[in-house]
Specification:
transmembrane helix, 6 helices, membrane, DUF1468 domain-containing protein
């Protein structure tokens, strides 16, 4: 079995476990007044699980393949060392660092740093443009989540309110 199908099989298993949790475990603890709502907290996880199962089955059954059989963009697991694994691992590390730094340094600075590090990792060399877009994007996302959706996100580092 090809590497993409092995990855799809693992993804299918993860989506099935996630779907089981979304369909059965999350809904069991809902209070009675929320059980009449048309949209529950588990609605989006249910949609994600279903879409993940459909996509992974499409890859497992080979629906995404062309008629020619072999596509030049297929992953060759024997030449895995030739791919840009360093960039991928650095981006995954940046995502983990972003999640860990979100509370201590605040949403705005963590998001700004993640976007700048991600852009540099992917090869962006127009530094002024990168910094401007990262600052703008972090500010817009914070404004939309905080002001429009009404979800509190601490924009500043956690140690700053103690200083004031």
């Amino acid at each position: 079995m090809a590497l993409d199908r092995w990855i799809a099989l693992v993804f299918l298993i993860l989506c099935l476990v996630y779907g089981f949790a979304a369909f059965f475990a999350m809904d069991a603890g809902l209070p009675p007044f929320m059980q009449r709502n048309p949209i529950w907290p588990s609605t989006f996880p249910k949609i994600l699980a279903c879409l993940g199962v459909v996509v992974s089955l499409a890859v497992l059954l080979g629906f995404e393949k062309s008629d020619k059989g072999h596509v030049a963009s297929d992953i060759n697991y024997r030449r895995l060392h030739e791919y840009k694994l360093g960039q991928a691992l650095l981006l995954i590390g940046a995502m983990v660092a972003y999640a860990l730094l979100l509370r201590p340094i605040g949403f705005l600075s963590a998001t700004f740093l993640f976007l700048v590090v991600g852009g540099l990792t992917l090869g962006e060399r127009r530094y002024v443009l990168l910094v401007a877009i990262a600052a703008f994007a972090a500010g817009v996302v914070w404004y939309l989540v905080q002001q429009v959706l009404g979800i509190f996100l601490s924009p500043l580092p956690s140690f700053l309110p103690h200083l004031l």
